[in-house]
Amino acid sequence: MTEQAQGAAALNAVIADAASGIALALRGEGDPYALTRTLPQEDALSPAAVRVLGADALAPYALDGGRGADGAGSADAAMVRQALTAFPPGDDPAAVSTWSYRGLVEATRALLPAHAAQLPPAPDPADDWLDTEPWPRLSHRVSQLASLALPGLAGALTDRLSGRTEDLARGFVRAVRRRDWQQAAGLGRWLARLPQTPPSLGLDSGLRFVQQMSGDPRAAVHLTAARTFFGRGR
Amino acid sequence: MPMDRTAQPETAALAAEVEGLMSAPEPDGVFRDTRECGGGLLLAALLLISPPTPRPKTETK
Q: Are A218 and A59 in contact (CB under 8 A)?
């Protein structure tokens, strides 16, 4: 294995570990959640994993009464700050990267308000693609932003996506047929949040099917979030 | 193979990996060629309906 491939595999492993911890916490199982308990502070890959997971790194704090482990907020916010500082969107950033960065800033402000000082400003990401992208590409991008489908977060994005609910429903079916479980789970999570998801889609059975078929920890986070926060896929 | 998590990748490479993971291109789908599947089905059907292999007659007493 080359050094680069080993680095990528190591980062993927750290992300998968963290995602498993987040999914467990969203199911209400295990110890009280702390990001710094799921991702060791001394591991140089932890901030990178937080940046990739985006707002999901703090998702368990959005549960009713999800106060997290005692005293964890300060250390968790520090790790998020480290991730935001070390991995800002690049010079010519992908829209997903900027939206995800914004989502992480917003989530920290909303979920760890006592520790949200000294956060970098939230960027203003491009949003024209929300209206112009054809549905397969829109679905792919939106699924990559599934971490923003949290209660109280990204309200403006949710409103814009409401106008394309049918396109996202098409994308969900396409992703399932392609066996792209991560995309299907991400889209399913958005569709669980959107108010006008057509009943004919069979979203609940679809989410249960994706759960049966997928063994991916990040997909598990999306499916658990859809169930816990929006009551879909039970 | 156990992963060596103490190996610190360079920051730039790590940033590129992070960007790559966040906005990864859609994987190519795996689609079956209908004609290939049809050919396979036809072959299987022909094998099923083919007459049994001729066997030497056993002597009857």
A: no
